[in-house]
Amino acid sequence: MHAANVPVEADFDEIRAGLYALIARLLSGPLDAQFVDHMCQLEGDTSALGLALNKLAALAKSPPPDNFADEYAPLFYGQGQGGEILPFASYYLTGQLYDAPLAAIRDDMLKLGIQPTGSVKEPEDHIAFLLDMMHGLITGRFAAGAVGVPDQQGFYARHIEPWASEVFSDLKKADSADFYVAVADLGLAFMEIESEAFKLAA
User: pLDDT tens across 59-116, in order?
Assistant: First the structure.
């Protein structure tokens, strides 16, 4: 996953790409000290999105990095049967893992020329993977636009919008969440902005 700053002078797509990358990294695995240092530099404003960024920065400046890893484990790893949150499209949309939504994502990955690296064990419908794919569509890392190949709006509408806000809502209410409540707030605010922007563009 990619870590990215969200500079004030960046244009709209650069800001969007940076936010997708940021949230993807926050959800992809335990945070290391270098990324925690990166979060300390985040700056927001008085909007819901900006307040969530400010809260992330404030929390990153307080506890040692191990605390974030300790929080991530029960949320997403758990004991045997997974953590409190199962952040997979198949689970949220059908109640089962490795179901039709995963097949649909793999089909679009093939059209986009995205090859799994084999370095991770989670299926490709993990929320962090999907957010990272959106980052790639925005930055041009993945070539879209050909007939039958999903563009940003198509990919978002098909693979992210139907369930992402629900997983962020569940994360916000999770018993083990503290720092990740701020991550959930960021995700909810950003998904609302993206959904409204795509509606206006339609």
Answer: 998 877 678 888 998 999 854 566 899 999 999 999 999 999 999 999 999 999 888 7
- In CATH terms, the superfamily for domain 12-201 is TorD-like (1.10.3480.10)
The torsion angle over the Cα atoms of residues 9, 14, 18 and 24, rounded to 10 degrees, is: 170
Question: How far lies 196's CA from each of 151, 152, 175, 199, in Å?
Answer: 17, 14, 30, 5
Residue 147 contacts by C-beta under 8 Å, 6 or more apart in sequence? none
**Domain coordinates in residue numbering, the chain:** 12-201
**DSSP secondary structure, 25-94, as one string:** HHHHSPPPHHHHHHHTT----SSHHHHHHHHHHHHHTSS-THHHHHHHIIIII-SSS--S---BHHHHHH
pTM of the model: 0.90
- pLDDT of 121 reads 78
Residue pair 61/55 in contact by the 8 Å Cβ criterion: no
Q: Residue 76 contacts by C-beta under 8 Å, 6 or more apart in sequence?
A: 27, 82, 83, 84, 85, 87
DSSP reduced 3-state for 126 = strand
Q: What is the DSSP letter of 99?
A: -
